[in-house]
Every structure is written in C-alpha cells, then in structure tokens.
Specification:
Blueprint (H helix, E strand, L loop, with lengths): L1 H11 L5 H4 L5 H6 L5 H21 L3 H4 L3 E9 L2 E4 H9 L1 E17 L2 E14 L2 E2 L2 E12 L2 E11 L2
Parallel strand pairs: 1-7
Antiparallel strand pairs: 1-2, 3-4, 4-5, 4-6, 6-7
Helix pairs in contact: 1-4, 1-6
C-alpha cells in the first residue's frame, strides 16, 4: 500500500499547479512583489514540477505522468524498491482527495541534478484503506537533454 502511495507520490511530485507553485517563493518576494532571483526561479521550477506530478496522481492522469520520469526511475518505499511501471499501476488504486507540500527545500549538487525534500500531508485511500497522514519525501530530478525528469523518489511516514 505504501509502495503504491509513493508511486502516486512521485506523480504527485510534480507539479504545475499555480497554487502550490507559489510555495517556492520566498516570503520577501511574496510580500514585496519582487521578481525571483535566478536561483529562486530554478528552485520554483523544480517545486512546480513536483506539484504537477501530485496533481497528475490526484487526477489519475497516468499518461501525462510517465513523461516526467527518467527511463531508469525508481521509488524507494517502506515496502521495497519499485520501477516506473509499478508506480503507475499504484496510481490506479489510489484515491487521493487532497495533498499539501510544506518545508520544501531544493539543493543543486550539480547543474544537472536537483534534490527536492519536503513534507507532504495527504488525505486519501489506497485499495480502500486509509493512507491519510504526513510523509517525508524526496525526489531527485536530473536534467537530461534539457528536460528535468524525476529519477528517484523516496517517502516515509512521519511519526
């Protein structure tokens, strides 16, 4: 169940909802109406991709979900390691009512790798069982051919 939720989470990861995309803006930029610096824009773009994936999971848009992922994508969940096809199958059994990303942080170990960490609070069920609660998650994004793709997703239930 957690494996499938995580898969959905990756989808969920992602991200072009304007609402949640604003979460990446600094308080200064929000309050003063200033434009974002190049590094803030880069951070926001990664967070937006993650939120777009979450939206795809919530709306069960599996066809739109796949292109956001690298061919060698993996998810590491409490019940094992899964590939993209397994993640997508999990989305079909997931009923995600709502989600909220908080504490988002983006780090660029290199110009073509981004590490996003965050806390996600969800309401929903997987195969009829309640999975509502808070989770800590991370996604490694890689820039392949000028396109940012999810490469690795991890999640663990917050205690």
């Amino acid at each position: 169940m957690k494996k499938q939720f995580a898969l959905a989470g990756v989808a969920l990861l992602a991200m072009t909802s304007l609402c949640f995309g604003q979460a990446g803006m600094t308080n200064a930029a929000k309050s003063k109406g200033k434009s974002l610096s190049p590094s803030e824009q880069q951070n926001k773009a990664i967070i937006d991709k993650e939120v777009a994936l979450w939206e795809m999971v919530k709306n069960k848009q599996v066809d739109a979900f796949r292109p956001y992922h690298a061919d060698k994508f993996s998810a590491v969940l409490s019940d094992g390691v899964i590939n993209l096809n397994q993640q997508i199958e999990g989305i079909r059994d997931l009923d995600l009512k709502s989600y909220s990303l908080t504490d988002t942080k983006v780090v660029f170990p290199s110009k073509d790798i981004a590490l996003l960490t965050y806390k996600v609070t969800v309401q929903g069920s997987y195969k009829g069982q309640d999975i509502s609660g808070a989770y800590y998650a991370s996604t490694v994004w890689v820039n392949q051919g000028g396109k940012w793709l999810a490469f690795l997703y991890t999640e663990i239930k917050a205690t």
